[in-house]
């Protein structure tokens, strides 16, 4: 008799244990026991392995079917899924005010939150995201709904309650003490589930909306419970200029976060397009990772994040969709955008050179689909401190995997395969052209959580849920407009440096904390 929860697959498994190298484990037999990979061996040892594990059958993959590790999205704003694909017309600080805060605030309607979050988690699982690092929203309750939804559908996740206690709309702000209390409540609620797939995360939104007191208090909670931490760092000019005006005594966002105690080996900072080399080296020393969100950076950012350069300085780098700053929930899309982003850097360097010679220096930022897949799996696992648990197919790791079917031709699939194309070409087509239709089964901890249109732990199917959602969306409250004080900050920070400085001055008069330089010598803050 097979031990409980033991099963086996025979076929081809693709993964990227080494950056830039795609390894194909061809005709292997993978035994999964209690969610973990117990054995990887040659397919022709099937009979012996079957006897050893008491397996009544071994599932053989069909030609053109492959396993790939589940994707790890290191930066998702769960409530922003509601408006993903819309609202791409304004810069970051205005985008937060105009679209983001109202949308997030509307999750106080818990019925709506419950339904939207089920749709969100289903959408991400369907697209192959077996692990996600989620930001929730400000209010405590909807975040508990998010955690429940993840638990119910079987996804792996690191989840945080967003904290923000300054420069935010009146209806979407908390006072410092409440924020710290609710952050701790969220941590204990999530840990109390004792669900090994779900971990809580401390989530100061970003420096402009978090007082030093809040950030330091959150760092203490993270330390007390050994939590992950997530925030946004050096994302775009509007944000960076705003922080420089608010905290002139610090050399950079990284210096602020360092002083607050928020740079740890379990911290993931999103974007980082404007990090200096010194900042990157410092994050690397702390073991802090950056979530590279190429699609979002094209819309809300002003600069390119250079993956190869950051890795060469020792930084941990994962990949993120940044829904809704990024307009796609798909990590396949994120991988393609990472490749395009790298090629834009090359094109930019050539344009700056004014010449027609592509030098090796211009080439060194270019990444291929293989590096992108590494970022979406191994890089993400490293960023989330899960490199010994997921990211590749190795004995002892948990089986988070996607069964890819490249046999869907014509209108039933996103691409066609032609005679003479081998497995490697079919797999490359999947990474570059594939979509959720190719992901016929999704596994987390060895459990099939989605097969075809069915979410197996939920018992519902996609079509039915979509119909239900339309009713709930109709009944959701209309988001209120945020307060004028914040509007000014957003507008000015994005408009010009001069205006940003005027505004931050005004905000300080309005009761925001004065720059720290009054109490601390500036030289201290310039060092890490
Ligand atoms: N900075 C602060 N909040 C956000 C957010 O929700 N999305 C992005 N992209 N950047 C942010
Ligand atoms: Fe973000």
From TrEMBL:
Entry's EC annotation: 3.5.4.3
Domain Amidohydrolase-related: from-to ranges: 68-447
Keyword match Zinc: yes
Residue numbers spanned by region Disordered: 491-528
Cofactor(s) required, per the database record: Zn(2+)
GO MF, one example: zinc ion binding
GO annotation, biological process: guanine catabolic process
Keyword Cell division applies: no
Residue stretches of biased makeup (Low complexity): 505-516
InterPro entries for this protein: Amidohydro-rel, Guanine_deaminase, Metal-dep_hydrolase_composite, Metal_Hydrolase, Metallo-dep_hydrolases
Catalytically driven reaction(s): guanine + H2O + H(+) = xanthine + NH4(+)
Metabolic or biological pathway, per its Swiss-Prot or TrEMBL entry: Purine metabolism; guanine degradation; xanthine from guanine: step 1/1
A UniProt-annotated Pfam family: Amidohydro_1
Keywords for this protein: Hydrolase, Metal-binding, Zinc
Cofactor binding comment, as recorded: Binds 1 zinc ion per subunit.
Superkingdom field: Eukaryota
One GO CC term, this protein: cytosol
Family that this chain belongs to: Belongs to the metallo-dependent hydrolases superfamily. ATZ/TRZ family.
PANTHER family found in the cross-reference section: GUANINE DEAMINASE (PTHR11271:SF6)
Function: Catalyzes the hydrolytic deamination of guanine, producing xanthine and ammonia.
NCBIfam families for the chain: guan_deamin
Protein name per its UniProtKB record: Guanine deaminase
